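Researcher: Structure prediction, please.
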Amino acid sequence: LYKELQNYFPEENLELLKKYYLSNSIISQKYYIYYDIIKQLLKKTNVQHIPIKGKYMIENYYKDGGCRPITDIDILISASDITRIINIFKEQQIISLDNYPDNFYEKYLISRAFKNSSEVGNALIDVHYALINNKILPFKYLISEDINFEKFINTNNQSLILVFHSIHLFKHSFSRMIWLYDIYLIIKTNNID
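Model: Predicted structure follows.
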């Protein structure tokens, strides 16, 4: 990739891109550590989940954590498990932050010291219990029902992922170019018309 980009960008821009790539790689690795902690915890307590948004996009489309920034961990669970998640996280001293019941997700902060390092880090975890919530304006005019864990897990339909990412981008006023590129990747990779 670097050699290919040399034909299009001046050297100083390539150095900047290289720094962004390395920074994204390091941050992604830390978030993967956090995700593994959450994954093991949920597995031990029999709570099914799937990663969504950044982690999902990296695993399924980018294939390289350096190519896509990640700022939190988003997981989708069944709404029937939300009380269990709250209790499990409380037991593990994972801190609950502002909750957004109208948005169908809970926000948590996990802190830990990294092995073989003096560094202590934090990670935000967003636990979603509806992929798309049709009770929020203007989404209630766009979709007829919530797209929840069970519906998604049973179909694994990339069109649902596309709708989710599109609504997410809209909800945040098109504030991040990477989210627009995520949508492009989903459309192009899956030949969605």
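Model: Residues 11-44 form the longest helix (34 residues).
Researcher: Thanks, that helps.
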